[in-house]
Amino acid sequence: MKTPSLWIIAAACFVAPASVAHARSAYDGSWDLNFVTQTGTCDPAYNFTVNISDGVVTHPNLVKFRGYVARSGSVRASVTVQDKFASGTGRLSGTSGRGRWSGYAGSARCSGYWTAQRN
Fold it and tell me: Which domains does the chain have, with CATH numbers?
């Protein structure tokens, strides 16, 4: 069974809560993200765009998430939506980034990698 909504959750791996205060960051701007599933029954790939402002990453359709982008570019985050969960780590550097993600939707487990490209 395909689980396209898990991609939205995986996307949240790059969304920081508004309560985390950051000064203007080197990563501010629009970023295109690509998630690739390597194991599990999720869709093979999913692409979307997020915005980073003052170090906080936002996407208009995300519900519950925790995470941050450190000044070093290190990314660590997780998100939960109903019975779905995803978490990921990685790094942004200059105009690109990459990392790993894993999660589940009900009993289905998925994992893979992500890449980012600044617009």
Answer: 5-118 (2.40.128)
